Amino acid sequence: MAADLGELLVPFMPTIRVPKTGDRVYKSECAFSFDSPESDGGLYVCMNTFLGFGREHVERHYRKTGQSVYMHLKRHVKEVCSVPSHRGIRNMLLFLNRDFNGEDYEYEDEAKLVIFPDHFEIPLPNIEELPALVTIACDAVLNAPSAYKKQEPESWEEEIQVSRHARSLRQLDNGVRIPPSGWKCQKCEMRENLWLNLTDGSVLCGKWFFDGSGGNGHALEHYRETNHPLAVKLDTITPDGADVYSFEEEEAVLDPHISEHLSHFGIDMLQMQRRTENGHHTDNNPRPRVSEWEVIQESGMKLKAVYGSGYTGIKNLGNSCYLSTVLQVLYSIPDFQRMYVGNLQRIFDYSPLDPTQDFATQMAKLGHGLLSGQYSKPPMKSELIEQVMKEEHKHLQRGISPRMFKALVSRGHPEFSSNRQQDVHEFFLHLINLVERNSAGSENPSDSFRFLVEERVQCCQSRRVRYTQRVDYCIQLPTPIEAATNREELLAYEAKRKEAEENRRAPPEPVRARIPFTACLQAFTEPENVPDFWSSALQAKSAGVKTSRFASFPEYLVVQIKKFTFGIDWVPKKLDLAIDVPDFLDLNRLRATGLQAGEEELPDLMPPIVLPEDTRGKTLNIISPEIDERAVMQLAEMGFPLEACRKAVYYTGNMGPEMAFNWIIAHMEEPDFAEPLTLPSMMDPLPSTSDSPVGATPLDNSPPEESVAILTSMGFPRNHSIRSLKATNNNLERALDWIFTHPEDEESDALSDMADTEPNDNAFSNTNSHSDSTLSPDRETSGPRVKDGPGRYELFAFISHMGASTMSGHYVCHIKKEGRWVIYNDHKVCLSERPPKDLGYVYFYHRLSSS
Predict the structure, then answer these.
(1) How far is CA 454 from CA 191, 734, 799, in A?
(2) How many whole angstroms separate alpha carbon 563 and alpha carbon 840?
(3) Per-residue CA distances from 105 to 23, 76, 90, 98, 315 (Å)
(4) What is the DSSP string of 785-819?
(5) CATH 3.30.40.10 domain extents, the chain
(6) Which homologous superfamily does the CATH classification assign to the domain defined by 303-442+792-850?
(7) How far is Cα 560 from Cα 843, in angstroms, rounded to an integer?
(8) Phi, psi values for residue 386, rounded to 5°
(9) Annotated catalytic residue 30
(10) CA pair distance 96, 392, nearest whole angstrom
(11) Which of 32, 664, 733, 752 is the most buried (most CB within 10 A)?
């Protein structure tokens, strides 16, 4: 028999591998479905790629790759009957929260090798009869850790070392105090990925990443100029610590004295909102939050569980409810259902060899898991009878686990790849961004959310105006507390609270502010001051005001209520308020009208360039560029010309040899590839015209060559890169998004005259001419694709947050299906008795037909 098995496996021996360090073994979940070893058909693990497949999908992998040997894993689950029938409240809570891996179950695992296509089975272990290589490979697969342990940053904090600069860090007494909000980079307008230098208090942006996140690298530039080694990321500060980076050590580090270092700049991290291990908050006055948790989750009501297609829950992986709620809402929208579930077989058939890393495959897998009903089946009568006999209240819904999906969409993102709670609005935009990037050349379901905003800026002195348009996916409504209908009650509560605080008595029962939705909408449409406004009509700074209107209305409107703010003591907090959000919404009166009769436009001029004091009156004929010579030498050692290496490092902004290498590959065929680097003089006169005011820079000035080089090094055509930068005011992050949302058209590039005109003027001209009808998503326009139509909407979903901060708490969502509201609370899906529409955070509306 041993000889027979050996001979049987001989033809397949070259394809059987032993997992090496770095190989991920997917032995707990199918790459195309949520089948696992506990499923009826078990799980098949390829002995070459170590990918897992359910019974329905293993044949596809065999036909596509020719891999014939799989390990079949099957887990038989048996419930332990030693649990007493009468449990206390504590045991009941444990019982409701446990999963298959709980202590009330025991397992019997079975493994065997299966050879396709004949399905020949070899039981394991079978050490004596199998070749040694096969035995070693099987043993390694069975003992391999979960594939996600190599992806999830669960133990990264243990690997981070204390910085050698932490104890002796010198902090300047320069009087810098960091405000609790309103941060932006001191060298550009970036408001994300901001880092506080712990030596001098400078707030600067981080480096730019391939996924479009990050900044312009000003924090790193500042270190090179000053050698101030440590910086902390501003939006990561909690009482438990913060993300600290050492530029000198070139890695994330620990700072045991972070509290003292932050207090030097007025940040008291120990007084910030505290969180428990599961993300729930604790504070000195928990009563309003307890009430909020009960109301939003509809606690105390006997909610009826629902099963079937569209009623599948999603397991909480630990602070992953922000992801679950967004996905539940998206897959209740026909466009997403059609794109990913309607095209399921085509997506699976054309998936890459590693489907776990393919966005479309994982979106289709998740959509099928939520909509098929396969993982949301009602309990059998025998199970219900058993519950009644045991006087138990077991929740029989288990839901699907989004572990593979989360690992993919959060990869490389500093926040979403962590196990911390996140802002559901930020994740929604992140996911829409990924949908955009992965929908080039095909139907894009995120078109349903995209709309155009017209911004009208007026110079208060000259009364001239400028109209521009931008793309958006969500409107953010302010919450004017002064418009609360129970203002007197709020004032009385505040007086009692202060009195109780002074007399050291218990605080009074909190009062929730009630704000009309119309007041929020009115605040959104009010004119706002434009800081540092430069009037091209006056050629000087002036007062300016901006108003925003809808240049188009989306098919699905997303409304975020701005509930979160920072206190003056840097404590992040959520405003305790309720808003009477309507079921039906008419925004037609907010449609943009464009330039009106009698209005005069501001000239298309840019502010003059202001030179530093030490360069005025001097002639600068040569600019000495800053170039990372270490990166240059690394590239030169690879055999590239030295001057070409210098150009590559310079034009990629000193972002490292990898970026520079990409630039070299993209520019090797250019005739001046090995020519010396030449730069224009700072004092070279601009081409002047008789009608150009002195000191004004024409608006059609070319984007910085460094930014163009970064985009072209990523494989984008030069003309398309220049257009994207012009359309986004030379912002790299937005330019990358623009490229993905504007697939290149060679004919339009050849005929386009956008290089000689203001981008915003042409970008949306065709869109506005079709404002009375819905645009087809594949309609060729010169601007972003939008599905314009009437501005009348009906509420169909909302996501609610419980807790004191977006850094903590819990999210649930309510969705209206088949005329009834359903609450999705992680894996539990029930009919809603009292949907708390007034306590939502993000609301979703769908457009009503014009009939």
Answers:
(1) 22, 18, 27
(2) 10
(3) 30, 10, 19, 10, 19
(4) -------EEEEEEEEEEESSSTTSSEEEEEEEETT
(5) 5-81+93-143, 194-273
(6) Cysteine proteinases (3.90.70.10)
(7) 6
(8) -65, -40
(9) no
(10) 10
(11) 32
Six-digit token pair at 583?
């079921």
Contacts 24+ apart (CB under 8 A), 663-667: 663/709, 663/710, 663/712, 663/713, 664/635, 664/640, 665/713, 666/712, 666/713, 666/715, 667/712
Indicate which residue of 810, 814, 827, 846 is catalytic: 810
Of 237, 281, 449, 198, residue with least CA distance to 810? 281
- Residue 631: its H or E element: helix 629-636
CATH topology for 5-81+93-143 is Herpes Virus-1 (3.30.40)
Is the CATH number of domain 629-667 1.10.8.10? yes
Q: Per-residue pLDDT for 283 more than 60?
A: no
Instruction: Check: CB of residue 780 under 8 Å from CB of residue 838.
Output: no
Which pLDDT band, with edges at 50, 70 and 90, does 554 fall under?
A: very high
Residue 425 appears among annotated catalytic residues: no
- Say if residue 790's pLDDT is above 90: yes
Superfamily of domain 194-273: Zinc/RING finger domain, C3HC4 (zinc finger) (3.30.40.10)
In the chain, what is the greatest distance between 2 CA atoms, to the nearest angstrom? 97
Instruction: Give the residue carrying structure tokens 């599948």.
Output: 312
CB atoms within 10 A of CB 722: 21
**Numbered residues of the known binding site:** 185, 188, 205, 218
**DSSP states of 544-585:** EEEEEEESS--SEEEEEE--EEE-TTS-EEE--EEE---SEE
Burial (0-12, 13-18, 19+ Cβ within 10 Å), 348: buried
State the alpha helices, DSSP H only, in 193-257.
218-226
Beta strand ranges found along 255-331 (DSSP E): 274-275, 281-282
Residue 61, both tokens: 């992998």
Summarised one tens digit per residue, pLDDT across range 327-371 is 999 999 999 999 999 999 999 999 999 999 999 999 999 999 999
Task: Detail the DSSP E strand segments found in 430-497.
Answer: 451-459, 465-472, 475-477
Which of 629-638, 744-753, 823-832 shows the lowest per-residue confidence on average (mean pLDDT)? 744-753
Which regions of the chain carry the CATH code 1.10.8.10? 629-667
The two structure tokens encoding residue 451 = 């709309």
Measure the CA dihedral 730/736/741/747, to 10°: 70
Catalytic residue among 321, 459, 520, 645: 321
Pick from 817, 809, 821: nearest CA to 298: 821
Against a cut of 0.70, is the pTM above it? Answer: no
**Kind plus residue range of the DSSP H or E element containing 404:** helix 403-409
Inter-residue contact 19 to 144 (CB < 8 Å)? yes
Q: Which residues contact 389 (CB under 8 A, 6 or more apart)?
A: none
* The token pair that represents 294 in the structure block: 């009960």
Q: Which of 764, 760, 686, 683 is nearest to 723 (CA)?
A: 760
Whole-angstrom distance, CA of residue 316 vs CA of residue 402: 8
Least reliable range by pLDDT among 57-71, 508-522, 683-697: 683-697
Residue 385 and residue 379: Cα distance in Å, rounded? 10
Q: What is the tens place of the pLDDT at every residue in 437-467?
A: 898 777 899 999 999 999 999 999 899 999 9
Q: What is the pLDDT of residues 287-311, one digit of tens each?
A: 433 468 788 888 778 889 999 999 9
